């Protein structure tokens, strides 16, 4: 009650965060659309009034800044005296579209605020520098973490050359994903299952293992949320055992990563929309180097990075889940936890016994959201996230 | 922004909820103090002004209503025209203190609002009826769930004759509480461990198993939060194996529940502050009725109910955790989840394999709270909670 009686006190900083959150909301509206380009939102504001706004369109279409400038012009406004909020540093190079920074300089706003700098170390900061050189003041790193959460895969691909991978797991409170007799449908409820399709829809690649393909015969496409684009499906299939009549091969393209160079089988799979990629093998259990082999998962992610993959949604069984974790390929866990106890049953990820608690794989929780009756818990590898964040913030120091 | 421009619209109902939440806050301030009496808070309000407030004191001391009336008088007010908010129906019987309902009738407030009725089916509603008979209007069931959360154990003991038991577990995201070599200190961090002492402090009994006593030799008392009262410690000790030099026997009273009637050992333990209670045995694995025996845990809870125990904080190892779950003794899970994966390790609760997912023990999540770096997840048995809630709400129907 006392708060409403006082005059509103809004600092320039909190205004910046307010408008940047609106720009982030615009970028979220194109979460399923822009890959492999980043999702970007832009708002142009003068005296607390939105003059124009927009978000990046599908590949080849206009970027957010151009969409917002067009919207502004359609509403009969100019950018004079306005501030432009954009979730990513405007591009300064000629790609499929002309540089956004040229369009902004031509529009001559009073100021430009960006949430994060371009993660590409070769171009990062050049867009801001060109704006400054044209006499337009620039602020950076407003809502940087929220902006990074829009595009962790794009930033990962630009900086470390591999996609950002989250491992989707559905498990009981005691960490079990299936009974010993294999029963697993459904541990989680309809809300959690529909939510899982949101994460498939935003990814570039939905990844699973050949065991899941053979046993559950899933489609692995996006069905429970409307999407303008289907991700590529991918299978880790060490011995090239994917059946040619698997449902996953119906529809869009499928990548099959294997160590088994069987040209005849590969041809038959390729006649069914698949692309077979032969990769090196590594021991499937690092602790038993003379045992079974499997696809080198790190090599698979490097291959994906070279093929414009930003985000990987991995939804495998417990064996591949364990292998992805053991090989350090997992950046984030997307854990749907059901309010049940299953007792002696199959683990959500098959991992060897540890000798020391300090050797446990450590994450950080950053979200716990009810999806009745289940919980969605997100956890990430702290170091991997901090490294991306470092790459999209201007270097600290004098003169910046 | 539009909301602050409109005149405040506050209905009588939302005012009631506002003041009742304040009364609930007062009751929370005596969470560690009042057992076996319920925690109760009371606020007396006129024209939006608090005239007096208070909470129930330790056993033998004044109840919340009397504390609030005294506070009101000390501030120089009378209850004329005021509304009294109290989290539990005022008592109408002579216990250790005179009936609160008499004090309220003498004070003649304009209205009395209670969050829940007295759960004792023999007295429930009589306090409200006496107020009405004295011409004081009464409302009930305002914030009933929040009020029940103050006193689930008191309500359980009054209605089903057993305490409310929560099972405290600390585990990894994959449901493991210790490595196979036994290492378990510490899976969770200092904030989660301190929080666990809050739950010990509010309980009447802290329960563990003789295996934990022999292996970890814990004190099981309240140390990380200040408390005016220590709960009784209790041990499930089927074969009466608690060492006489166990640290848990230092300090306050300890109950030892056993099936092993060894008078000499019992005498030695009783010389060390313990009370040995011999109970019937049941098969330790219901699926193997000719196997090992253990203490009948349901009989133990009935015994506790007869001995004024409201809330049991169970903090056992995986074996007793499984036994409590299997015997239907667990009302609530208090799960501290650490952001780690332990892989092949000891389960948080030892439970047999199921043949059917429909047979899984089902709970409902009702809280997920970050306690960095961990998460506190609370889940309860829906049916048990609903049954308590039914017992503290006035029966629906005409004339109520």
UniProtKB/TrEMBL annotation, chains A, B:
CDD domains registered for this protein in UniProt: Riboflavin_deaminase-reductase
Names of the cofactor(s): Zn(2+)
Domain CMP/dCMP-type deaminase: 14-138
The organism's place on the tree of life at top rank: Bacteria
Pathway annotation: Cofactor biosynthesis; riboflavin biosynthesis; 5-amino-6-(D-ribitylamino)uracil from GTP: step 3/4; Cofactor biosynthesis; riboflavin biosynthesis; 5-amino-6-(D-ribitylamino)uracil from GTP: step 2/4
List of catalytic residues: 65 (proton donor)
Details of cofactor binding: Binds 1 zinc ion.
EC number(s) stated in the UniProt entry for this protein: 3.5.4.26, 1.1.1.193
Pfam entry (one): RibD_C
Residues noted as binding NADP(+) in the record, renumbered to the chain: 170, 186, 212, 216, 238, 317-323
Function, in words: Converts 2,5-diamino-6-(ribosylamino)-4(3h)-pyrimidinone 5'-phosphate into 5-amino-6-(ribosylamino)-2,4(1h,3h)-pyrimidinedione 5'-phosphate.
Family according to the record: In the N-terminal section; belongs to the cytidine and deoxycytidylate deaminase family. In the C-terminal section; belongs to the HTP reductase family.
Alphabetical list of NCBIfam families matching this protein: eubact_ribD (TIGR00326), ribD_Cterm (TIGR00227)
Protein name according to UniProt: Riboflavin biosynthesis protein RibD
The species this protein was found in: Candidimonas nitroreducens
């Amino acid at each position: 009650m006392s708060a409403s009686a006082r005059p509103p006190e809004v600092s320039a900083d909190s205004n910046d965060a307010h408008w940047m959150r609106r720009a982030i909301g615009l970028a979220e509206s194109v979460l399923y659309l822009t890959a492999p380009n980043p999702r970007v939102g832009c708002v142009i504001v003068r005296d607390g009034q939105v003059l124009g706004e927009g978000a990046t369109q599908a590949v080849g279409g206009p970027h957010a800044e151009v969409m917002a400038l067009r919207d502004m012009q359609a509403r009969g406004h100019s950018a004079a005296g306005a501030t432009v909020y954009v979730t990513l540093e405007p591009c300064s190079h000629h790609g499929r579209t002309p540089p956004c920074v040229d369009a902004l300089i031509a529009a001559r706003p009073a100021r430009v605020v960006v949430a994060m700098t371009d993660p590409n170390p070769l171009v990062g900061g050049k867009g801001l520098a060109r704006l400054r050189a044209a006499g337009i003041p620039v602020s950076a790193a407003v809502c940087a973490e929220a902006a990074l959460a829009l595009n962790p895969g794009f930033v990962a691909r630009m900086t470390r050359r591999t996609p950002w991978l989250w491992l989707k797991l559905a498990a009981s409170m005691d960490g079990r994903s299936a009974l010993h007799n294999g029963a697993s449908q459904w541990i989680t409820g309809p809300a959690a299952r529909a939510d899982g399709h949101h994460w498939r829809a935003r990814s570039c690649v939905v990844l699973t293992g050949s065991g899941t393909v053979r046993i559950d015969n899933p489609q692995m496409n996006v069905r429970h949320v409307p999407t303008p684009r289907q991700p590529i499906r991918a299978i880790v299939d060490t011995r090239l055992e994917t059946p040619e009549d698997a449902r996953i091969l119906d529809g869009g393209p499928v990548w099959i990563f294997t160590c088994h160079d069987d040209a005849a089988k590969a041809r038959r799979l390729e006649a069914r929309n698949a692309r077979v990629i032969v990769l090196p093998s590594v021991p499937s259990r690092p602790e038993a180097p003379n045992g079974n082999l499997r696809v080198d998962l790190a090599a698979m992610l490097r291959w994906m990075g070279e093929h414009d993959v930003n985000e990987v949604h991995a939804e495998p069984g417990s064996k591949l889940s364990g292998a992805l974790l053991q090989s350090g390929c997992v950046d984030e866990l997307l854990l749907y936890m059901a309010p049940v106890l299953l007792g002696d049953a199959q683990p959500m990820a098959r991992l060897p016994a540890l000798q020391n608690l300090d050797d446990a794989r450590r994450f950080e929780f950053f979200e716990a959201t009810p999806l009745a009756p289940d919980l969605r818990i997100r956890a990430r590898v702290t170091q991997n996230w901090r490294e991306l964040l470092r790459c999209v913030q201007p270097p600290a120091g004098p003169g910046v």
